[in-house]
Amino acid sequence: xxxTPAYDPPAAPSDxxxxxxxxxxxxxxxxxxxxxxAQIGLVLPAAINGVMQRTLQTSGAELxxxxxxxxxxxxxxxLTFGVVGDLYGRKKLVVGAALLAAVGYLxxxxxxxxxxxxxxxxxxxxxxxxxxxxxxxxxxxxxxxxAARAKGLASWTTALSLGAFIAPLLSGGLAERVAFQWAFGxxxxxxxLTAVAAWLLATESSAPEGRSLDxxxxxxxxxxxxxxxxxIIQGPSDGWSSAxxxxxxxxxxxxxxxxxxxxxxxxAPMLRLELFRIxxxxxxxxxxxxxxxxxxxxxxxxxxxxxxxxxxSPFRAAVPVLIIQACTPFIWPVLVRLLHRVGPGPMLVxxxxxxxxxxLWLRAVPIHETGVLPILGSLILNGVGFGLVVAxxxxxxxxxxxxxLTGMASATTSLVRDLGQTLGPxxxxxxxxxxxxxxxxxxxxxxxxTPKEQGIASAVLHEGGPLALHTADLGPLSAKLAPYTTDALxxxxxxxxxxxxxxxxxxxxxxxxxxxxxPSGTRPAETEASAA
Length: 532
Known about the structure:
The chain is mainly α. It has helices spanning 15-18, 22-43, 49-56, 60-76, 78-88, 90-109, 114-142, 146-177, 181-201, 215-238, 243-265, 279-309, 314-342, 344-364, 376-398, 406-443, 451-471, 476-515, 524-531. Helix 4 packs parallel to helix 7 (114-142). The radius of gyration is 23 Å and the shape is globular. It starts with 14 loop residues before the first helix and ends with a helix.
């Protein structure tokens, strides 16, 4: 999830001040279409994790890769694509990115294996990594007055929220009636339409002055993140001491060190590492990584609970996702006022604690409870908590640095926040599936199975992990195994919720210590800097 800009427009601007020239209206429409498309792709798998797992018989690691294949490029490439748009033109970048996303969705729509779906998700994620920054930049380029820019940013924010709301309806509704691949196919059509609209309606803009690409830094951080995620996701199935896993963590350490070395010597670094020498900013960055790991890890946990463990239909699994997504746009006007009245500190502390409470609430609900009502409080706490954090997290980082560094601080916060979200599914999946596998390994011996049944169950568990064993069609054996696999998965993912709640509490403590809990309103100028 990409946080929306917290911007408070000037009071009661005149119609002339807010008017956008007709020739630029098309650019704003295209920017909104582009960010809506990118956000649909990001949220799309949440409601259909269960049906994807059952249809493709994926392992737990493969299911995690399906989500993270989109999240990784969206996180690590966004800054570089922002520079590409400045150098070569935002319109061209949006057209190319939308077409690349369309190719990715075509690959996903025709997938009959987890590997092909992961490939399609990766291509679509690269497209989204360009669409997020380019869509915002093309709008700010044509809105030259503060009031007009406020309206442009409000439109962009609304489109982003709309994409998050449409995605579970689209994927859950289609997967309820036809194959889940149709959700990717329809999104691919939307991508083509976005590219056509950009070509016909958008105004080209660029800002190449003082901008250059940092390819060594980009390559180093991308390889480091892929190596880290490979180790975390594959560790439970391959063994934490196996050579590929150990080498992946070594590669992460080598390439993250290379990234630091390159950035300290680059004339135009993608990250200004000196920002991290400011204690309050370093704390804000740590808070963003840990807190967003907690939030998206909890959301991933919820999707596995609904779609995989409980076998709920795709549309029923979409309803809780919709409730969480709907909270932020519903309360957004209140959040902006809060940011100006009390400042980011109290909002961050309250938001992270609300998310922690929501995740512990979900953990307390028995796994056999499949209705929305028992978990409604959990969903609202998570949604409202996320809204509070989204509205305040960039402003908190911006407030800790000199005014001349606010732009870089905002971009850096976006990067580390997205990295935290990328790590969420990987870490929670690894912890939960590792615990479930350990419990099943012991419980299968006491399940009263024949030697042949024991051999079949052990082989499926070894090859595909606990999720595959839970959903595999093994005839009468599946009914025998169901209580054991359900209990083991509930145990693993409930413990995952303890970890996500703990991460949110740690983030709240960091916010309280370094950002502060006393009201300290954010001035509109500061909020505008964080939005830009």
